[in-house]
């Protein structure tokens, strides 16, 4: 039986995936200060040179990790047009994902919290949060345009409030998992935003 050789692209993708997983695990277990190229390489079973080849420097690794940990946090939304329905699905899905929070989600939240005091993280997470708020505001604007959202609602303010609520719940879940019932919160928080926004 012959095993097909992997392409260069497949080997590169596999190495990057292993390195990002190792980076996320280090952040969760030891904090962002443990995130060095050497530690990531050792954890993933690669040399520091491979990590440097993939990312160049710690800043690029952190940027890639931030994007990887936030991408697709709520599956199934990528093909939905902006709308109140998409916004409510995002809120519900975000809280559902917190119920089964994995290492990438934990790493994102820890990095996000650290960004308040770490200048090298701050710009990355300001950009990520701005993009998140823009998506939420777009949903509210679409709802106003199609008549499902009260026209007196501020899309920008609503986006800030939703991000604040979701991230606050996420940090509480991370710090004290037993005190946060994400199943119950899903229903209550999603229903709250529907009542607050629906025309």
Which properties best describe this structure?
199 residues
Describe this structure in words.
The protein is an all-alpha fold and 199 residues long. 72% of the residues lie in helices and 0% in strands. Helix 1 (8-30) crosses helix 6 and helix 5 runs parallel beside helix 8 (155-175).
Chain-wise SSE layout:
Blueprint: H1 8-30, H2 37-44, H3 48-55, H4 58-70, H5 84-98, H6 103-114, H7 119-146, H8 155-175, H9 182-197
Helix pairs in contact: 1-2, 1-6, 2-3, 4-6, 4-7, 5-7, 5-8, 5-9, 6-8, 7-8
Quick overview of this protein structure:
This protein is mainly alpha-helical and 199 residues long. It has helices spanning 8-30, 37-44, 48-55, 58-70, 84-98, 103-114, 119-146, 155-175, 182-197.
Q: What's the number of helices?
A: 9
Termini Cα gap = 64 Å
Order of helices and strands: HHHHHHHHH
Strand content: under 5%
Task: Extract low-pLDDT stretches.
Answer: none
Structural class: mainly alpha
Largest sheet: none
Q: Report mean pLDDT, rounded to a whole number.
A: 90
Measured as a percent range, the helix fraction is over 70%
Q: What is the radius of gyration computed over CA atoms, rounded to a whole number of angstroms?
A: 19 Å
- How many beta-strand runs? 0
Shape: elongated
